[in-house]
């Protein structure tokens, strides 16, 4: 991984500082710190992992271990709009695979990838618990239900 | 601080009852679960407020945003109280009519009522809709009735009265005795008797003990816990506090998936409210007993539903299981005695304490007591949250409550228990909801996901789907699970791609036996259940994929070549209209033709044809 500290602005660094400050004394707070840090920066450049490790007094290898273990944390930059297609059983049975296929085809990204212009990133995610709306898709936190391979592109047009 | 007393609780309950039965006052219970939010219930709620104000009805109509009502497929939905009228699929445009017709002119709006899928008739009354009428809402007793963000509403429905009884009238050992008498077993899926679990932790002496609530609902197709937390968060807090009293714990955590933001928000509100009334925190109800709860958000790892992995995760580490013993009851979180219960189990505790273990055990089968909440989804008419007494048949859940299979298709199988469970075929549908009976037919009770699959589902592909899930979620700590599931997945992938070998079935069975016997935790030990259940009930489909290179359900693209059956084709052209790659050649009054070279096997034409003329 290349060092990407230019990805992180001065403002972000000071927010990360205050995140660390808030939780440094709480045992077991690493995951909370990482979540809040990711909310600030968007993903984990190596420089950020090392910075948090130092701040929390935990080996960087352990921090990396936690970041890479949980699917919430990302080691690559995300798009401006995150597309999460639910791949739970109910959505799968009702055609989530076809929905993902259509998005991949249109924007040239596979699951886990981000478009070059960083407009979208695409993820097939674990059951979002909206099985009543299957197949379900979440874009930037908005849940869209009954999505089909035919209707999905129209929904995406609204996000630039 | 003045402590809340049983008398005060009773007064609040009466006040709430009086509020609901006030003459000439209507309550509009509008569903505010995740499903209905997604279909626009918040906008409908705002429009209702506006319209009610326009007619000057603010004094006579109260709009209450409730948690998940359960009938998720029909959202946004609303129940008008006391009229007992149910409205479905409301839009902002319907609001003016509802207010002027129903609320002003006393004429309920028929076109928005539930339509029975069989008789095609409208059902005006909420309690007459079979989906609701056949359920037994115990765990979900408050769903769709109370505002989950109001502790007054919860207390109004006998909330915290179980806790009050426990703290003022019962010894910790009596709590455990009542739990044992109730016969309730862990609703997370494994079915371990809850009273027994608590008694182990109670026996271990320690200055610090923990009560954890497992809200890391990871099974795909399961949304029971989310709905309970969204609809009735105080019930879970009350259950945890009673558990804490039983084992003498001082701290509790709710480990909740970060994918459930609404549930997290409502639980946090509930915690703050309970603290402010002295029902959580220091010296609860003036009894000297102290207990507090915090929320811990998961970070997306299925294995964290396993108890030891969940505890490692709260400690801020990689969520990997550790061998047991020592069991968490002796050494759990931070190596202190800990009990971990599922959301649904805990939500029952308050009522069990209030009404007694005997009351709870009066319903159910010999070894499975009480009720079970299921998330019914997939190819079924009535998708949603259902709660039935133990002993109800699967057939009744799918057909009577679920309203059967849409589009007149045939039921093929029902999947229970997610990636640790199995598929139950149509000819075993009379099996009843009972931990042991379900195990006999090759599935598990599981946490409550019920996914109905029609005849268009390929069972080999289903087995592949679950293995892919397990393989990705295997934490990698133990070799049998990490490597074994990968090999199994490779075999299933090649079968679905048309490269299956005759010896593959035996190989899968051998691998399954080894993984089950040697994996470290429940995830690996049960990982083979889905594929084994498919082999048991749908072996012929496996054989069709391997020997005939055919996918009977037409789901595996490599094994399917679509063609039009000339004599069935009615020349309507729907297939050509939906084909995304222009592979269907069709002209007016001509039979359609599929260009197999251009076809990408997307199934669009196959699904669109009204005459089953594409095969």
From TrEMBL, chain A:
This one is known as NADH dehydrogenase
Q: Which family does it belong to?
A: Belongs to the complex I 24 kDa subunit family.
Which InterPro entries has this protein been placed in? NADP_DH_HndA-like, NuoE-like, NuoE_dom, NuoE_N, Thioredoxin-like_sf
Record text on cofactor binding = Binds 1 [2Fe-2S] cluster.
This protein's cofactor list reads: [2Fe-2S] cluster
* Keyword Lipid metabolism in annotation: no
**Gene Ontology MF, one:** 2 iron, 2 sulfur cluster binding
Domain of life, source organism: Bacteria
- What keywords does the record list, in alphabetical order? 2Fe-2S, Iron, Iron-sulfur, Metal-binding
> Which residues does the record give as [2Fe-2S] cluster binding sites?
86, 91, 127, 131
Signal sequence, start to end: none
TrEMBL record, chain B:
| Span of domain 4Fe-4S ferredoxin-type | 560-589, 590-615
**What PROSITE patterns is this protein classified in?**
4FE4S_FER_1, 4FE4S_FER_2, COMPLEX1_51K_2
Concerning InterPro entries, the annotation shows: 4Fe4S_Fe-S-bd (IPR017896), 4Fe4S_Fe_S_CS (IPR017900), NADH-UbQ_OxRdtase_51kDa_CS (IPR001949), Nuo51_FMN-bd (IPR011538), Nuo51_FMN-bd_sf (IPR037225), Nuop51_4Fe4S-bd (IPR019575), Nuop51_4Fe4S-bd_sf (IPR037207), Thioredoxin-like_sf (IPR036249)
- What GO molecular-function term can you cite, just one? NADH dehydrogenase (ubiquinone) activity
Q: Which domain of life does the UniProt lineage start with?
A: Bacteria
Matching entries from Pfam families are given as: 2Fe-2S_thioredx, Complex1_51K, Fer4_7, NADH_4Fe-4S
Q: Which UniProt keywords apply?
A: 4Fe-4S, Iron, Iron-sulfur, Metal-binding
**Member of which family?**
Belongs to the complex I 51 kDa subunit family.
Q: What protein name is recorded for this chain? A: NADH dehydrogenase
Source species: Halodesulfovibrio spirochaetisodalis
